[in-house]
Amino acid sequence: MPVRVRFAATALLLCGIGSAQDAFEVASVKPSDPKEEYVQWLTYPGGRIVVANYTLTMLIEEAYGMSLYRIGRGPRWADEDVYSITAKAPAGSAAAAFIPATPNAAPPPELRAMMQTLLADRFGLKIHRETRELPVYALVVAKGGPKLKPSRDPAAAPRSAIRNGEIEAHNRDVPWLIAVLERHVERTILDRSGLTGTYDLDIKFDPRPLDAAAGVEASADSTWSWLNTALQTQLGLKLEATKGAVEVLVIDEAKKPSAN
């Protein structure tokens, strides 16, 4: 979950205020069906999105393109209650013209802006941005140099598969890899690798905690240890613990949405 830390600096930029151009034409928000098993955000041609089993914090993550670990804590229900959303952008808008390569493709900025407006309208969401001095990891090149393989076909569409204990990707860059790694280590990662190309990679690591034999639940620290070893031996990269200035989103106000 988001890390609670002391303040370092505050930016007076308030977020969550949308305009008519940034709003969905139609949108339905309701508690998720308990029988729904999948957690998913799907984007379809015509600017239509279908979301299932997302908490408010997860919706903020997607709407603002901000890692969960850079979103300050809101009310308890924001991390517990799950919602399903179906929405459609107005015909003729830039969002409606977007054609995703697959339903799992990341939404374009226009759809993210519409989701920000929806969160403000339906959840009464008010947030602001701050810069905080946080414990972070820096991704650097390990001793011996990088071992990443340059993309065989740089013109091909990027693709990837993330499995339990494996990250496979084709034609992906280091910022993409960092976004994936952040979900595993539950901490912001700064790119200090100096690598700017696109790569094909397949990294395997043991997803179990170091104390799995004792039946103790996995922790971010134990996952980091397994993953960092794999990064060094397979990709020639490593994560170094440090501190850095990180922009975070702070939830000032939120309320449970009313029924449609």
Describe the protein in words:
It is a single chain. The protein has helices at residues 56-64, 94-97, 109-122, 174-185, 220-235; strands at 9-15, 26-31, 40-44, 48-54, 83-88, 126-141, 149-150, 159-163, 166-173, 189-191, 198-204, 237-253. The protein is of the alpha+beta class and 260 residues long. It has 2 domains: 9-130, no CATH class; 146-235, no CATH class. The strands form 3 sheets. Strands 1, 6, 10 and 12 form a 4-stranded mixed beta sheet that branches. Strands 2-5-4-3 form a 4-stranded antiparallel beta sheet, covered by helices on one side. Helix 1 packs antiparallel against helix 3 (109-122).
What is the fold's blueprint, element by element?
Blueprint: E1 9-15, E2 26-31, E3 40-44, E4 48-54, H1 56-64, E5 83-88, H2 94-97, H3 109-122, E6 126-141, E7 149-150, E8 159-163, E9 166-173, H4 174-185, E10 189-191, E11 198-204, H5 220-235, E12 237-253
In short:
This protein is of the alpha+beta class. Helices cover 21% and strands 34% of the residues.
Key traits:
4-stranded antiparallel β-sheet, disordered N terminus, 260 residues, 12 strands, globular, 5 helices, 4-stranded mixed β-sheet, alpha+beta, 2 domains
Please give the alpha-carbon distance between the first and last residues: 29 Å
Strand content: 25-35%
- Helices and strands, in N-to-C order? EEEEHEHHEEEEHEEHE
User: Count of helices?
Assistant: 5
Estimated helix fraction? 10-25%
Poorly predicted regions are 1-20, 210-220
How many DSSP-defined strands? 12
